[in-house]
Write a sequence for this structure.
């Protein structure tokens, strides 16, 4: 029928269908790059990742910097400015410093500031937000970027061990509300995650060490060989030897990436969240202590608790459980906290269930690299596990 | 290697890779249901869509109702309460009335109210938000639901023609900020979209008619036969004959659904947005007139303008352009507004570009069902097109 063809006015309309069901899929790409001195003008990485190819107007860019990173690297804003002088890259329109650590996720002003800068500088869906910082700042800034214009392009420059091997790899973001961690957030895939080794050099010893608990977690869940690698390098990692730390950080990032891209549930719609091993108590511990315990430390304690619990319910052998706990200690991480003994910690079980919804699903260990999901936790056994760790 | 196997301490770590790239895809399902009297306890649809199967705790539900819908149907909250008394459905925990129309998207209190209710009533990712209303309320409530716990389940009950054939079908949501339409939002797929014909019966004549401009738009873009169907039924549609309107509404919803699920770009990452035909001026017209023009009316005017523009740049024949404009008029829709003649309307071109980013991309018509993307708009031709419509 031609484009001016007409049906007769008496035609029967197509029978109306009551049910329209359609399945579809969407494709995503996840780029993760390790480098040194990404802002050095001789480093080609940024041109490779976000180079401007002269098609359409030159895109804009705003940079958002974690105050903690800025304090340790006062020259960073100038280095960012110098790098984006390059006409082959997006045009830098503003550099904003935002509070680092959990404040970034607790203070709604951080998201507001970034949204307002996106508006003021006309950052559109082809333009960029570049965030430089730790996991909390990346989470909060990422939420702003993902919701402005339904998603402007985000490049995450992960500046902590925790961010480089875990937090910045994920495809989610979020902020805290109503006193609950990550109450608000969404799933989104960044344009790229850049892990610059130089940024780790100015971390405090405490922040350096805090990151490696997530590596132990991934080893417990995914790869017994990887626990060997951590174990064999633990003392040198604690002493911040970059050659010992580098392969541990990269392998963790890779395992995390593959969990998302090859695990079959990138946007966490299934019941289980295996990567949250040790996290029910960790989240709660952070909030009970008003974040005096870092996330990495809380995760270390949470791993120790759920590993010992796994032993007490006859899953993992004592020698293996002790091995996990020993690695954490050798990395300079805590495996116990007084708050584990009170009633308050147990509220973390229900909070954890509620965030995910449906049945409680907690990951335990049948062995190293052999996770198992359970749907009940016995508070008395939690207390006994805490006692064994004290 | 057994689970307590160890590598030798002198082993060579795996060579660190600088670049980790992984592609992945995610699967989605889109459910669209047409029915009558969905809240009648004898209607099995809700049990079919969101029935509770006794696995895990009974999920919760909050209902959010558009004030416009509530004003026209004061018994609605009670009907919702009665329906969800059914133990085979989620448990209703609160029904909230929120301002209808564009106020829902302009007033940040609407999103806040819904987030706060999600927190108070412990609505988790397995629980539900049910929104009853027009496109604007569905957009704002959807944004809250999509970002709480990174997405609680949402069922959209579309109560207007515009929502049933267009707004509620999309996989996005959003609110206005900084005086810009949809500045904040995200992509998300609802659990289901329910179109209840009974809800349309209490619409004002103006709101009834406003919905059909999107049907003409879809016909212009996708399906010349569908324009025949609208044309042949236009007079009866204007008079609100349900038998003439039903197939037009359902076919539009179906074309819209297939655009999303089969068009290859469900989350609009490509440059073109063909479904936004006529929308650059429509969005601007709404904002210039402070929403005195409804979205559907503005879209009708925008379609007429871009169709006439297409003729003036030698794309569509005059007779075909006139046919589109005539259908709009016969549906009782406006095709002209005084504000089309000023400078102010032209700012809509840049606003439209900015929201999408990159090059300007405007859809014109080479014929009915034959859209074409262009990257430039001549302001003088816009003015001549407006003159021809006045």
């Amino acid at each position: 029928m031609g484009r001016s063809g007409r049906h007769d006015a008496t035609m029967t309309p197509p029978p109306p269908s009551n049910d329209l069901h359609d399945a579809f899929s969407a494709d995503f790409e996840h780029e993760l790059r390790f480098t040194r001195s990404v802002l050095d003008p001789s480093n080609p990485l940024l041109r490779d990742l976000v180079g401007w190819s002269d098609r359409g107007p030159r895109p804009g860019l705003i940079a958002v910097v974690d105050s903690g990173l800025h304090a340790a690297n006062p020259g960073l804003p100038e280095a960012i400015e110098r790098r984006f002088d390059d006409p082959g890259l997006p045009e830098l329109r503003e550099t904003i410093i935002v509070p680092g650590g959990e404040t970034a996720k607790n203070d709604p002003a951080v998201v507001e500031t970034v949204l307002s800068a996106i508006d003021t500088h006309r950052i559109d869906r082809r333009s960029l937000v570049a965030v430089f910082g730790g996991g909390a700042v990346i989470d909060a800034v990422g939420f702003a970027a993902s919701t402005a214009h339904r998603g402007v392009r985000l490049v995450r420059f992960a500046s902590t061990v925790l961010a480089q091997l875990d937090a910045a790899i994920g495809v989610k973001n979020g902020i805290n509300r109503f006193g609950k961690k990550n109450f608000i957030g969404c799933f989104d895939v960044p344009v790229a995650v850049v892990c610059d080794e130089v940024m780790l050099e100015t971390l405090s010893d405490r922040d350096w060490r805090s990151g490696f608990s997530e590596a132990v977690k991934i080893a417990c869940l995914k790869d017994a060989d990887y626990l060997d690698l951590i174990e064999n390098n633990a003392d040198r990692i604690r002493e911040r030897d970059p050659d010992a730390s580098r392969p541990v950080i990269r392998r963790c990032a890779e395992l995390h990436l593959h969990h998302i891209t090859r695990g079959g549930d990138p946007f966490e719609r299934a019941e289980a969240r295996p990567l949250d091993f040790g996290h029910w108590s960790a989240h709660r511990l952070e909030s009970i202590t008003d974040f005096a315990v870092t996330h990495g430390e809380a995760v270390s304690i949470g791993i120790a608790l759920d590993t010992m619990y796994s032993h007490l319910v006859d899953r993992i052998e004592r020698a293996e459980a002790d091995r996990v706990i020993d690695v954490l200690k050798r990395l300079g991480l805590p495996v116990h906290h007084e708050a584990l003994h009170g009633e308050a910690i147990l509220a973390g079980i229900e909070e954890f269930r509620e965030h995910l919804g449906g049945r409680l699903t907690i990951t335990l260990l049948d062995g190293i690299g052999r996770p198992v999901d359970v749907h009940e936790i016995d508070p008395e056994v939690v207390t006994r596990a805490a006692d064994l760790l004290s």
In short: The first strand of chain B starts at residue 19 and ends at 35. Chain B touches chain A through 97 residues (CB under 8 Å).
